[in-house]
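Good morning C.,

I know you're traveling, so I'll keep this short. The sequence:
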Amino acid sequence: MLTKRIIPCLDIKNGRTVKGVNFVDLRDAGDPVELAAIYAQSGADELVFLDISATEERRRTLADLVLRVAEKVNIPFTVGGGISSVEDVDILLHNGADKVSINSSAVKNPQLINELVAKFGSQCIVVAIDAKQIDGEWLVHLVGGKVPTELNLFEWAKEVEERGAGEILFTSMNHDGTKDGFANEALAKLSTQLNIPIIASGGAGKMHHFTDTFVEGKADAALAASVFHFKEIEIKDLKEELKRNNIAVRL
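The tokens, ready to paste straight into the viewer:
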């Protein structure tokens, strides 16, 4: 049985870790390299670093941050934000990232997924999808959730899989930062329709939310930020709780 993964997410702006609610009202959560080292030691399975201002400001993800993180952690980590070319990915993987996450650039140029998969392999390519439920329909949003599109979440996710991406990171904008639980109905639909792993993001507040997203949402991994950054939930305690609920995790 494949173990379920717990993934702290570090949103980076101007070199610092930040966290907001529904993608706004950001507050400082600490130094990303220090936080990464703590998470690696405390049982996190992977880490995700998202440079949330990179796409908006039209600049490349901070490659030097990747170098510093790679020196400090011994678990896989994914980097995203402002990645729009084979060259961008080459630099990040060369500097020590295990995977890259693309979002807005994939929607604007879907062929980029094919190009990256052909060059680096599916296992390196994560496509992040930020979506918001509006009048019953899940619509994809770009540029850190600021730009709405007419693209349907489930149709886009299927295309992403068909183009070779190895994993999907789905963030529900409706749930992000609310601590009311993950978008399990949408996650279950994604998991049923696709054959690649789905990472649940947006809404973690209590330990039982993680249990729920693995059982009801059929997610392969659960990503969270503030509950870990501000020590509301300790990863070791969370994994022991998941194990008590018969969910396979790496202790």
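Safe travels,
E.
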